[in-house]
Write a structure and sequence with these properties.
Blueprint: E1 2-9, E2 13-20, E3 37-39, H1 46-53, H2 76-79, E4 116-128, E5 131-132, E6 151-163, H3 165-173, E7 181-182, H4 184-201, E8 205-211, H5 214-217, H6 219-224, E9 230-232, E10 249-257, H7 261-272, H8 286-307, H9 320-327, E11 334-337, H10 339-357, E12 361-368, H11 374-380, H12 392-399, E13 410-418, E14 421-427, H13 428-433, H14 448-462, E15 477-480, H15 482-498, E16 502-504, E17 516-524, E18 543-552, E19 555-557, H16 559-566, E20 572-575, E21 578-581, H17 584-595, E22 597-601, H18 602-610, E23 621-626, H19 628-634, H20 638-641, H21 657-671, E24 676-678, H22 686-695, E25 704-708, H23 710-723, E26 729-731, H24 740-748, E27 752-756, H25 757-762, H26 764-768, E28 772-778, H27 789-795, E29 799-805, H28 814-824, H29 832-846, H30 849-859, E30 863-864, H31 871-874, E31 880-887, H32 891-908, H33 913-932, H34 934-938, H35 949-963, E32 968-972, H36 975-989, E33 993-996, H37 1002-1013, E34 1020-1024, H38 1025-1028, E35 1039-1042, H39 1049-1056, E36 1068-1075, H40 1079-1089, H41 1094-1098, H42 1110-1117
Parallel strand pairs: 1-7, 3-6, 12-16, 17-23, 24-29, 24-30, 25-27, 25-28, 26-27, 28-29, 31-36, 32-34, 32-35, 33-34, 35-36
Antiparallel strand pairs: 1-2, 2-6, 4-5, 4-6, 4-9, 8-10, 10-11, 12-13, 13-14, 13-15, 17-18, 18-19, 18-22, 20-21
Helix pairs in contact: 3-4, 3-8, 4-8, 7-8, 16-17, 21-22, 22-23, 28-29, 29-30, 32-33
């Protein structure tokens, strides 16, 4: 397996390299001091890397714009230069050829979607014990000995392919098509490439001039490039440069991103989240790397868009401006000009860039609608109760010479607005009449009148209709007719807002009630019933009858009323007391829909009802109604409308009311042949709901395959034995797991097959050969990266019913949700690229509420998420939820555990009295330390990640806690281990972690408590049991984790009560970690079995263990089968 990484090379493009699991993890040790750079021991060779980068096909090209409209039109003297002539300079990146092969990018024999140069790259990477540390995406199949030691940064040279920006753009936008697993750095740079392409699509770019070489502007850059990070395979080569004319200088024409408002915020977010590996080829800060990459990728995207247009033919350009315009479409962008002319051009372009970016104060534009006129509304309402009918409006307008009365005039009022505080607005009238009495903008500008005029002038280049208002010396507003108001709402307002101006439009403009919409009504051909309890299913291929209804908000319209509206020939009309938009294309679409009716399949109905079909010639689907089961699903409230379903008799537990509703919902989706995402809040019992569903399957249904992290396999096994003891459970895991015919035999003899994500990936072909009744993925965030082999392998498994179980359906990006929904209901959200364009980019970058609502409507029927804060759930829950969490040991932990037991048993054979009791207590302590983490026992300062089952489970729980914006207390009886946890968790989650132990003084202790209790305090607090178990109020936390056990219920309860006490307004979840098959689980079982004796038996801690016989100790301490994770 290859894990592919990207490192941005400022000034020269993208270096791509990969880790190869087939190569040894350790670098050969050499005597003496480590050199400045060493060969990376498990970096893939260029041939394997090129094969992994070869995509199935290039990404779909963005539709070529009619013209590349920039974010701000050019100054007047640049507009007169004419279009760029054709010639060599107009060849875009699609027509460049590889210097090595002479083939165009993407042709056979090249390395992926663009031209690449083979070589090596010097990377500064985390290093431990003389070898690079594996990336988090790298999964090795062989179990290696743990590597100990501190982590440092060291230089490693890895084989790499270098892509120029134009080719890097194509490669990054095809990241999902690569054979290997994309690492975090490559995925992040791909997000940057999509951002660059989006800026070009929206015209948020401006042309500029840059030096031909970076060192021309920055002499220090020459020294930085003297020893480049990338070294070509054939040695350094010097690019051939065309000599400039005598007295002329060479420069580059470039397209630069214009970052304002939400775009600027998104760029900052991309810089803050830049993975270190993306800048491992240098020492520049994240902001500088992102700025250089975004500049280069935006320039490449703009040239690609311009290449797809038809240029005007002409001769060789002369003069600075024509040469610059011609170079804007060329592959390299270089041109020559006289120094004076170039300096003047650069100065004018810099002014243009500054004007477009704006300053601390910006112009604002507020559209004011005509005042309500009851008499006028009655006369102009085409659907009102006037005798003349709908035609009277057009006749009334004609009678007035084709103009509307003054009461129908609209106004766009001007003002000045603080860019950093949009609520501070001063209207233009006050600016002109009293410029020195503008207290709201004090300190932000010195000349409000000049600023207002300059801002209005800048805005007029984007929306030329403003020129009318600027003909007056003191413009305050622009009067518009209804057509002009509609043009402002539809065209002017979005452009001005995107350019960073303040824009206020009436609230009704974006409401569904101000536009025509469609309602789809369907009726199934079977009598409605309680589908959740039915044996048969409706099926996606079943036929239903349907018809459309066209409505304006809540009011349906007839075909006659639509035709009347179409005859008005006006884009906005006040209808029944409110303004509505009348789009001819949508009116025609509404008429077509009213005339259509018939039958379609359930699958087609779902696509019609849930798909995003909102364009100029279609109507948005406002509502879909149906009878029976289908209606319950489409309502998005199926869980609440379905009758709660009782678990089958073979289920031995008791489900709470909300869990019975969840069971009904799962059975309901299954009856429809659809998948679902069970995304209940952590602690609400997702496991028991799934077990109740599986226990209710008929004997002929077939097996269920459940894929989960290794840390949860044992828990599923134990919970199944507890709640559904009649289920036949098989664990497909381990080196001796069944294969081929033997595998098929054991599967068909089981009701529930448990396996891990790593085994499912390795055995995907074998697993795909089984006709699974149901496929369940637990901790479904494990498949959130859709392009990974793990996610692809799991999605490829066939099953009649699919369920994804997760407490965090969206961890970081909406792409997580797409990947999980693609597993549950393939194709529902469309291709990944379409989903990104329609939903991810508008919601994540621009906070688009409409897109978020459309996405909620599409996914709502298939996602069940109940929160502990839901009033219907709170009444079902106890004030405190306590649960025991069983964890598996890793192979390293098991080895140490057996060694401690063997040593103790050998030594107590020849001891007695105090010495024997001391040996037993010492062994007990050491075993508990092993169960926590090997590093606690070894005390060698080694890294913690990946070596402890408890730590792995703790990280999974804290992922959900932090995703929900909640806080947790973590108790351990070992102060040393608490310190280790603090450092590891702080690095793992990038959050501050507090740590209270016996060595903390009173003042510092009080300060920690105050900080944790504050609204913006740290989310995690590690406490040693003795120091933090009593006397503190820590109600900011609603999660308590006992990482290790004290075996004194009173002491543990006191610690829990730090969060569960007066002042706590939320349910508290308490988890007590126990390692399965170890002394921890056995002691916990003894306490549970003899609860009434717990205080007397274990009230004094662990002293009672010392009184046990040697044979009894052997039984208590022995490591049971199934305790060890792979």
């Amino acid at each position: 397996m290859l894990v592919i990484h990207g490192a941005w090379l400022p000034g020269s493009g993208l270096a791509v390299w990969a880790e190869d699991t087939a190569l040894p993890a350790q670098a050969p040790r050499r005597p003496g001091r480590a050199p400045r750079e060493r060969p990376h021991p498990f970096a893939a060779d260029p041939t394997a890397l090129a094969a992994a980068l070869d995509p199935a096909g290039p990404p779909p090209a963005d539709p070529p714009p009619a013209d590349l409209r920039t974010a701000d039109p050019p100054p007047a003297d640049l507009r007169t230069a004419g279009p760029p002539p054709a010639g060599p300079a107009t060849a875009g990146p699609e027509t460049t050829r590889s210097a090595a092969t002479g083939r165009p990018p993407g042709a056979p024999g090249t390395t992926g979607p663009g031209t690449a140069e083979a070589g090596s790259v010097l990377l500064r990477l985390p290093t431990r014990a003389g070898s690079p540390v594996d990336s988090t995406e790298l999964v090795r199949t062989a179990v290696a000995e743990p590597v100990r030691g501190s982590v440092t940064l060291a230089g490693w040279r890895a084989p790499a392919l270098r892509y120029a920006p134009a080719d890097a753009l194509a490669l990054l936008r095809a990241t999902g098509d690569h054979v290997g697993v994309p690492g975090a750095s490559l995925r992040h740079l791909a997000e940057l490439a999509e951002f660059a392409a989006d800026l070009v699509r929206r015209g948020r770019v401006l042309p500029g001039v840059a030096p031909s070489r970076p060192e021309d502007d920055d002499p220090g850059a020459l020294a930085a490039r003297a020893e480049p990070a990338f070294r070509p395979a054939g040695g350094p080569t010097r690019a051939r440069r065309r000599p400039a004319r005598t007295g002329a200088v060479t420069a580059r024409a470039v397209w630069r991103p214009l970052l304002t408002g939400a775009d600027a915020a998104w760029a900052r977010s991309l810089a803050l989240a830049l993975p270190p590996a993306a800048r491992a080829a240098g020492d520049l800060p994240p902001g500088a790397v992102v700025a250089d990459a975004l500049d280069a990728l935006t320039d490449a995207a703009a040239r690609a868009a311009l290449t797809r247009t038809t240029p005007t033919r002409g001769g060789r350009p002369t003069g600075a401006v024509p040469a610059w315009l011609a170079a804007l479409t060329g592959p390299a962008g270089e041109f020559t000009a006289e120094p004076g002319a170039l300096a003047a051009l650069r100065a004018e372009l810099d002014d243009w860039q500054r004007d477009a970016a704006g300053g601390a104060v910006r112009a604002s534009f507020r559209l004011v609608e005509p005042a309500a006129d009851p008499i006028g509304d009655a006369l102009t309402d085409p659907l009102g109760d006037v005798p003349a009918g709908a035609r009277d409006l057009g006749e009334a307008v004609a009678d007035q010479g084709g103009t509307l009365p003054d009461a129908a005039r609209w106004r766009v009022e001007f003002g000045l607005q603080a860019a950093d505080e949009p609520s501070l607005i001063v209207d233009a009238g006050q600016v002109w009449r009293s410029p020195h009495t503008v207290p709201a903008l004090a300190g932000r500008l010195d000349s409000p009148q000049e600023t207002l005029l300059a801002e209005l002038g800048r805005a007029s280049r984007l929306w030329p209709e403003l020129d009318t208002a600027l003909r007056t010396a003191t413009p305050e507003a622009l009067e518009l007719d209804v057509e002009g108001a509609h043009r402002f709402l539809r065209d002017g307002a979005p452009v001005l807002h995107a350019a960073g101006f303040g824009v206020l439009v009436p609230s009704w403009w974006r409401r569904p009630s101000s536009r025509l919409g469609a309602r789809l009504q369907a009726r199934s051909r079977t009598a409605p019933g309680t589908v959740a309890a039915a044996d048969g299913g409706l099926g996606l291929d079943a036929l239903v009858d349907y018809r459309w209804e066209v409505a304006l908000g809540d009011e349906p319209l007839t075909a006659e009323e639509l035709a009347a509206l179409a005859e008005l020939k006006t884009p906005l009309v006040r209808l029944r007391g409110r303004w509505v938009e009348l789009d001819p294309g949508r009116l025609a679409a509404g008429l077509r829909m009213l005339r259509s009716a018939g039958e379609l399949t359930v699958a087609d109905l779902l696509r019609l009802g849930l798909a995003d079909a909102d364009s100029d010639d279609t109507l948005p689907v406002l509502e879909v109604t149906a009878d029976g089961a289908l209606g319950e699903l489409l309502s998005g409230q199926a869980e609440r409308r379905l009758s709660p379903l009782d678990p089958p008799p073979t289920f031995t537990g008791t489900l709470r009311p909300y869990q019975r509703r969840g069971l009904a919902w799962l059975a309901f989706l299954q009856s429809l042949g659809l998948g679902g995402v069970l995304a209940d809040d952590m602690g609400l019992g997702k496991t028991v709901q799934l077990l109740a569903l599986i226990a209710g399957d008929p004997p002929t249904a077939g097996p269920t395959l459940l894929v989960c992290p290794m840390s949860l396999v044992g828990n599923w096994q134990r919970e199944a034995a507890r709640f559904a003891p009649t289920l036949r459970v098989h664990v497909h895991h381990g080196a001796d797991r069944a294969r081929r015919d033997g595998f098929a035999a054991v599967v068909h003899a089981a009701d529930l097959v448990l396996t891990t994500y790593s085994v499912a990936t390795r055995d995907a072909v074998e697993l795909a050969g089984i006709d699974w009744h149901r496929l369940v993925v637990d901790e479904a965030q494990a498949i959130k990266n859709a392009a990974t082999r793990q996610a692809e392998a799991v999605r490829s498994l066939p099953a009649r019913h699919r369920v994804a179980v997760t407490g965090t359906p969206v961890e970081n990006r909406l792409a997580d949700l797409w990947s999980i929904m693609q597993f549950a209901n393939p194709g529902l959200l469309g291709p990944a690229a379409s989903f990104r364009k329609a939903y991810a980019e508008p919601i994540e970058r621009h906070g688009d509420a409409e897109a978020a609502e459309r996405l909620r409507r599409m996914t709502g029927p298939f996602v069940l998420r109940r929160l502990k804060t839901d009033s219907s759930i709170i009444s079902d829950l106890p004030e405190k939820l306590e649960m025991e969490v069983l964890c598996n040991l890793t192979a390293e932990q098991a080895s140490l555990y057996r060694a401690v037991v063997d040593d103790m048993l050998a030594r107590i054979e020849s001891s007695d009295g105090i010495e024997r009791r001391g040996l037993v207590l010492s062994a007990m302590t050491r075993l508990k330390q092993v169960c926590n983490h090997p590093a606690q026992l070894l005390r060698d300062g080694s890294a913690l990640a990946g070596r402890s089952g408890k730590l792995a489970r703790l990280e999974e729980i804290l992922d959900e806690v932090l995703a929900a914006g909640e806080r947790a207390l973590l108790f351990t009886q070992y102060a040393e281990f608490g310190g280790m946890l603090r450092g590891h968790l702080s690095a793992r989650f990038g959050r501050e972690v507090l740590f209270l132990h016996g060595g903390v003084g009173k003042a510092d202790r009080d300060a920690m408590v105050t900080r944790f209790q504050s609204a913006d305090g740290p989310p995690l607090f590690v406490l040693s049991l003795k120091a933090g178990g009593t006397g503190l109020t820590l109600t900011a936390a609603n999660h308590v984790v006992h990482v290790d056990r004290w075996w004194n219920p009173a002491v543990e309860d006191q610690a829990t009560d730090r969060a569960f006490r007066i002042g706590q307004r939320r349910r508290v979840q308490v988890r007590k970690f126990v390692c399965a098959g170890t002394v921890e689980e056995k002691v916990a079982a003894m306490i549970a079995e003899k609860r009434s004796l717990a205080a007397s038996v274990v009230g004094s801690g662990e002293q009672w263990v010392t009184e046990l016989s040697t044979e009894r100790l052997r039984e208590l301490f022995a490591l049971e089968a199934g305790a060890v994770a792979e």
